[in-house]
Each structure stands twice: as structure tokens, then as C-alpha cells.
Amino acid sequence: MERHADPALTLRAGASSDIEQCVALWVDACAVRDGRSIGGIADRARPKFDRSIGWIVASSGEQIDGFVLATAPGSGMPTDPPDAAVVGLLAVQPSQQARGLGRTLLQAIGRHLSDAGYRQAVLHALLDNHTALGLYRSEGWTAVGDEYEHSLLKRPLRTFSRDLMQDGLGGTVGD
Description:
Blueprint: E1 2-3, E2 10-13, H1 19-34, H2 41-50, E3 52-60, E4 63-71, E5 85-92, H3 101-115, E6 120-126, H4 130-138, E7 142-149, E8 156-163
Parallel strand pairs: 5-6
Antiparallel strand pairs: 1-2, 2-3, 3-4, 4-5, 6-8, 7-8
């Protein structure tokens, strides 16, 4: 286990008993981001948990305050680098946003993937999500390729890549 700057929060590996709470958190965070609930969000997220190669949960007691999930290379977009792990889900409880938890989770999954031998990771970000884009860029993620349209949301999306061998990555999140 790893501690976050908030001593009440603990980072730990996700477990099957966390799936529904994480999916609900993902749906809530997306609704806040998008200004409304959009059908199909949960159905697209749920299968990713079964394909996880890294899943980290930030919790305070029984409450999940945030999580990040990565899947194996080849599980993202056809244009992703073939050897890049895919950070497919990152969400923080809306009441906990802007407190550094998203950054902590993003750094933790980077360390986990690096320790597992992955040299590169990608994520796909909506170009109108300026807060997330600022976080990704400040953590060394760079835009690659052309923008394209999100198949469900019909909004511009872009792939971002991160070299996991850069300084600052290393260490693991325990079970």
C-alpha cells in the first residue's frame, strides 16, 4: 500500500469487489466532465476491468475516491504504438478533484507499468477537457498522431504518449 498526501487516502491494487464502485465513479466523473449523463459510458468501461494489467484504487475506508486502470498493448486504438500499455480509465470523485489525486494516480500507474517492463504508455484524451490535458502535459505525456472523433461522444480526441523510462518512475503499489 502507498499513502497519498492526504493521510486518509490509501493507494492499493484494485480488486474484483471494486469494479461496480469504480464504474459508478467513472460514470459520475464523466457526467460532471460532460455536463450531463451519457448512455453507454458504463457499458464501455466495465469490460476494461477484466483486461487490466494495472489497476490502482485510492480509497478512504470503504469509499473509493479515485482509480486508474491500464490495459495491455493493442487494447486501445489501432494507431497506438504496438508496444504501449493503454491507460484507459482515470477518474477522481468530483468532490475530490483539484487536490492532486489524479496526478498521484497517474504517477502510480506509470511506476506500476514501468516496473512490469512496459517502456511506453498511451492514453486518449478529449481535446476539450483542458484540466486533464494540463495534467497529462505536466506529467510528460505528449500528443502523437492526428486528432480524431470519439466514437460515442462525437468530440475531438487525441492520443498522448509517455516514455515510462523517464526519471521519476519506479517503485510499486502493493496489494
